[in-house]
Design goal:
Largest sheet: 2 strands, antiparallel
Strand content: under 5%
Helix content: 55-70%
Distance between the termini: 32 Å
Shape: globular
Order of helices and strands: HHHHEEHHH
Radius of gyration: 19 Å
């Protein structure tokens, strides 16, 4: 099931990413504009792959549209497959959350995938890893944007997500940042390389046994 889910999500992200980059940058003179159609397709596919793996770029990303930056942020945040060397929250985490949300919207009592029921523990682990990842991105982004007006929010967010996901892509502002900003990015690289994997493993191995359960309660959601 893990293999099927990883391959499926990888294929979906590659197809969606390639299509988005083609649509967003087709006429951009700073990126895909000067290329012929086959080269544009190749560049779009390359940029769909790289935010979740090695972080190379075949075009000048500093000239990309703001929407392209934001979409790349999302690809970098999701990352690649669990157990690999890429960063991010991992495609399986994203898929589990998507399935859980879809099941909740449909009113299904269980979140099912490939004719299998996802355990509540798996869903809690995915939610925990994702929310910690969001916090690891939001807090540094807020701190950097509050301390300087030299860069736009789009640029700062791009650098922060790239550092957290250990991708290596950049809009070209890292060298011009203040020293403590760069140290924040270094810390995010370390957290991104060890944090999600370590946290996920710890949650998976941690199994507390209790001899009792407290009374149930419900609160209003949404």
């Amino acid at each position: 099931m893990h293999t099927r889910l990883t391959l499926l999500m990888t294929a979906v992200l590659l197809v969606v990413g390639t299509g988005f980059f083609l649509a967003a940058e087709w006429r951009n003179p700073g990126t895909f504009g000067p290329l012929d159609p086959p080269a544009k397709v190749l560049a779009a596919f390359t940029q769909a792959v790289m935010p979740r793996t090695a972080g190379f770029n075949s075009v000048d990303l500093s000239q990309a549209n703001n929407g392209t930056w934001f979409f790349t942020d999302m690809l970098m945040f999701v990352g690649a497959g669990s157990g690999g060397t890429a960063g991010g929250i991992k495609v399986t985490t994203f898929a589990v959350l998507a399935v859980a949300i879809w099941s909740e919207l449909r009113g299904d009592p269980d979140a099912t995938l490939f004719d299998r029921r996802l355990t509540p523990g798996t869903q809690r682990q995915a939610l925990t890893v994702a929310l910690i990842g969001v916090a690891a991105v939001v807090v540094p982004t807020l701190a950097i944007t509050l301390s300087t007006s030299a860069f736009t929010l789009d640029q700062v967010l791009y650098e922060v997500v790239s550092a957290f996901s250990t991708t290596g892509l950049s809009t070209g502002i890292t060298a011009d940042m203040q020293a403590w900003h760069q140290l924040v990015l270094v810390a995010l690289m370390f957290l991104g390389r060890l944090g999600p994997i370590t946290l996920g493993t710890g949650l998976a191995m941690r199994d507390r046994q209790r001899l009792y359960r407290r009374p149930g309660a419900a609160v209003l959601i949404g």
